[in-house]
Each structure stands twice: as C-alpha cells, then as structure tokens.
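Progress note, project year one: complex with iron/sulfur cluster.
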Amino acid sequence: LPQTSAEKRTYSHSRLSCFEKCPKAFHYRYVLEIPPDTEGIEAFMGKRVHAVLERLFRHVEKGHLPSLDAVLKRFHNDWDEAFRPDFIRIARNGTPVTFYRENGEKCLRHYYRRHAPFNQSQTLGLEEKISFGLDPDGQYFIQGFIDRLAQAPDGTVEIHDYKTGARPASQREVDNDRQLSLYEIGVREQFGVKGEIRLVWHFVQKDVVLTSSRTLSQLEKVRDDTLALIERIESEKVYPAKLGPLCNWCEYLERCPAKGGSDS
Ligand code: SF4
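Model obtained:
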C-alpha cells in the first residue's frame, strides 16, 4: 500500500477505479499486495506505446526529429525485449499476438502522422508526477503521472493523455472523466496555474482526439466525490467480488474463487 505514514494514504486514479470495477481485485492488489499473476496484452501494448511516445518527445525536446520508421523500430525492439509469453495473457481467445502488435504500430502511426513535427505546443513535462493533498486535514493524497504536460502558443496549459484501447470515449465521457480532472487539480496546486487548462485525450488506435475543460466548481465536486469514494474504500471490510465481462481481463482471474479459481 503506497503510503507515507499510517495516517497519510496515497491514492491514484488506477487504484480508485480498480476498487470501483471490483473490490475483490482491489483487495488482492492493494490490501494483500499480491503481485498480478498475469498482464493483459492490451495493457502490455499500451505501456510500449506510452514509452515510445515519451522517448519521441524527449528527442524532439533536444531538437532531433526521429523518423516514423525509427519510432516503429523502437516500438518493435521494446516489444521483443519486454514480451514474456508466460506472463502476458490474451483474453480474447484465438486472437494472435500479431494483432495487438499491429494495433500498437497503428497507434504510433496515427499519432505521428497527425502531430509531426510535434511543434503544436511546447512540452513542459513528460511522465510528469503530480501529488497533492485531497482533504483539508492532509490525510489523503492523490498521485499520478501526466503523459505530457504542455503549453499552447496562446499560453493555455494542456494535459495530454494517450489512450490505446480500441474504443474511443464519447465527448460526454471525457467531460465527466475523473482522471484528468484530478490531474488538473494537481497541476493547479503544484504549479500555481490560474488560467485555463485544456484536457486532451488522444485515442490513438482510432486516431480520435477529444478535448474538454473544467470549471473550478466542477473540480471541487470531483475532489468531494473522490474523498467520498476513498472513505468508502477505507471502511470496506468484505471486498466482494463483482463478476462481469471485465473478469476476463482480470489479473487475478486464476485465483479468484468467484470464477472457480484456486483461492479458497
Ligand atoms: S475475476 Fe472478476 S470477480 Fe474475481 S477478482 Fe477479478 S474482476 Fe473481481
């Protein structure tokens, strides 16, 4: 459990959404701290794409523009180095590894073709860590990593997030998204940003870009809702299994008793 002391507990968006999806999986991961038994291939692909985009922008910051071919070569090298057939799980039976590898390549092609030479905004941070106290007593902290923090030519600060899943979110979904709302609160607190902040989602597999913004009162509501969720998590005793279609992607599927797994 990532915490700085018994009183101060640090939450991330993924930790919160893990509880919302299934308290039982949350229990395995964050209470018992059992390392995942597997990693879904979609998550594996997403990590490779994120790492390559981060590296791409680090080159661009140094004044060097890698070719698309070089970017793709790096992706395939990373894939080969990191791929562990015994650990990576393909939930969709019968789908070959090459399908996901090609999807990763597609993500990078889309992003590169849409944004090269990557000078639409100035990069302020890559994998930028944000961390801030959520409540007035400083009991709970939110931590996260922003894929890319940038500033547009008009001075607007932008929080960019890459999504590699097959289905882009709707405008309504991004308008209500908690993850980037929390990042915005963090950026405002950490860097003292007072003006407008643009939230930008890159659904790279389908080459869709969506943007949204928040009012200060919307951010306050996110803060309150998140605190209420954390209080629910902290008072949870049973951690019930929540069966659903997402079980097929669960990292603890093999051991989950609700799915006939090995845990008694
Ligand atoms: S297999 Fe399903 S019910 Fe079991 S822990 Fe995972 S998500 Fe929860």
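The pocket of iron/sulfur cluster is lined by residues 22, 24-25, 241-243, 246-247, 250, 252-253, 256, 258-259 (CB under 6 Å).
Helices lie at 13-21, 23-31, 41-61, 68-82, 97-115, 171-175, 178-191, 216-235.
No further modelling is planned for this target in the current period.
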